[in-house]
Amino acid sequence: MNAGLARFRNLLVPVDGSPLSDKALAAAIAFAQPLHAKVIALAVAEPYPESLAPVSEEFNDRAMARARGHVGQAELMVSQAGLACDGYCVASYEPHREILDAARRLGCDAIFIGMHGGDPLGRFFFGSQAQKVLAHSTVPVMVLR
């Protein structure tokens, strides 16, 4: 094994059930296998906007259930590849901050993330989560399109 690659022990993959998220997970698995690295799956559930009263707890519960499902699917794929996997679900209005915080807190050596096309107006006003992660990450980021 290349000594430079040996430093990659924990790989963070934000998962949301989209095809690009699945592609990022597959790339992380392929990268992790020869290194016997751990894959960490993170799903960020975006809660009901507080500005839209009343707050819908049912919406929040469904969002968190979807996030748990995405993490569960990722854990299954990673374990089928013979690798260790930890899964986490969090709720946040700022997914990129949760991704960056998880990478720091969990000692991740790299982030594998899908770059969603999204609609141009949304990207103009809010920016891409992947772009924000790429701009502020202190560890290498593999962006998949």
Rounded mean pLDDT is: 89
Oligomerization: single chain
* Helix-strand sequence: EHEHEHEHHE
Any low-confidence stretches, pLDDT <50, length ≥5?
121-126
What structural category do the secondary elements indicate? alpha/beta
C-alpha end-to-end distance: 28 Å
Radius of gyration: 15 Å
Q: Mind describing the biggest β-sheet?
A: 5 strands, parallel
Number of strands: 5
* Sheet with the most strands: spatial strand order: 3-2-1-4-5
Q: How would you portray this structure in words?
A:
The protein is α/β, with parallel strands linked by helices and 145 residues long. Helices cover 44% and strands 20% of the residues. A five-stranded parallel β-sheet has the order 3-2-1-4-5, with helices on both faces. Helix 3 packs parallel to helix 5. About 4% of the residues have low confidence.
